[in-house]
Structures are given as structure tokens and as C-alpha cells.
């Protein structure tokens, strides 16, 4: 009986080892496939690095060169600047806060002088004086009217 048990155990072990052997063979095949993909990709990468081509040349990566060719294409297009206009004078190139006409820089700078405090009176007391010319302006069809400067001239 002892020999029968030993044979049964040995047969079970051999069957288990055969099953495990089959599983390991399947796993080895799968690993070989993935390794071949990586080795193929690394070969392509080494080839590309060895060639040192232009950035836009994608040949060798599975890219069909003649399929996506665009002739006369400008790769470096300058950014168009927005056209701003002034709301005050209507000219292009500036806004109303920096407008020369609004800030009176276009007409020249005004000269400023120092005046001691209290000497410059802005609201004077008394009547307003007006200078009147000696001769009145004439109308186109009338004679000149003369205003006498002295009462003796009349």
C-alpha cells in the first residue's frame, strides 16, 4: 500500500508540474511579445537619435510623409496686435488716458512760476474794468461813426 500511495503522490506531482510548465510557457510567450515591442521601439528611437533630423521630419515613426504634406505653409506666424483707438481724439495707437490732445501736451507745455502765498488774488473785489476802443466797428453800408474823446470836439 505504501508503494501505491507513493505512485499516486508522484503522479499528482508530475501532473501539477506539467500544468505549471504549460502556464509558464504561456507567460514566457507573452513576455517575449512585449519585449519584442520594446526592443523594436528602442531600435527606432536609436535610429532617430542617430540621424538627428529636423523637428518637422517625422519619417521613421510610422508617419506617412506624403499623406499630410501642406505646401507653402508658414510655421511661424507673428501674433497680430489688437488695434486700439482713442475715445477722445479717435486716432489709432493709444487710449484716452494717454491722449496728447486730452492732456494738452500737443499744444506745448505751459510755463509755471512760483508766486509767494497771499500775493496772487483770484477773486478781486470791486467793479470789472473793460477796455473799449475809441472807434466803433463799422457796418458794411454805413459811414464810420466817430465817438468824441473830448466834449469840445463835438
Order of helices and strands: H
Question: Which range does the strand content fall in?
Answer: under 5%
Summarize the biggest pleated sheet: none
Globally, the shape reads: rod-shaped
Low-confidence stretches: none
Structural class by sheet pairing and helices: mainly alpha
| Number of helices in the DSSP assignment | 1
Radius of gyration: 52 Å
Q: What's the rounded overall pLDDT mean?
A: 73
Number of strands: 0
Estimate the helix proportion, in percent.
25-40%
Question: Roughly how many Å apart are the termini?
Answer: 172 Å
Explain this structure to me?
There is one protein chain. With 154 residues, this protein is an all-alpha fold. Among the domains are: 1-53; 81-109, no CATH class. Helices cover 32% and strands 0% of the residues. The protein has 1 helix and no strands. The longest helix is centred in the first third of the chain and has 50 residues, at 2-51. The chain is rod-shaped and about 155 Å long. The mean pLDDT is 73.
Amino acid at each position: 500500500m505504501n508503494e501505491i500511495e507513493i505512485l499516486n503522490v508522484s503522479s499528482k506531482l508530475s501532473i501539477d508540474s506539467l500544468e505549471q510548465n504549460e502556464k509558464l510557457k504561456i507567460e514566457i510567450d507573452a513576455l517575449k511579445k512585449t519585449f519584442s515591442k520594446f526592443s523594436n521601439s528602442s531600435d527606432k528611437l536609436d535610429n532617430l537619435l542617430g540621424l538627428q533630423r529636423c523637428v518637422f521630419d517625422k519619417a521613421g515613426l510610422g508617419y506617412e510623409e506624403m499623406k499630410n504634406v501642406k505646401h507653402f505653409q508658414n510655421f511661424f506666424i507673428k501674433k497680430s496686435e489688437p488695434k486700439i483707438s482713442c475715445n477722445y481724439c479717435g486716432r489709432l495707437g493709444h487710449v484716452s488716458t494717454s491722449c496728447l490732445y486730452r492732456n494738452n501736451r500737443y499744444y506745448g507745455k505751459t510755463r509755471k512760476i512760483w508766486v509767494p502765498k497771499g500775493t496772487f488774488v483770484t477773486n478781486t473785489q470791486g467793479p470789472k474794468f473793460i477796455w473799449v476802443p475809441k472807434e466803433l466797428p463799422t457796418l458794411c453800408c454805413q459811414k464810420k461813426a466817430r465817438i468824441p474823446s473830448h466834449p469840445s470836439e463835438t
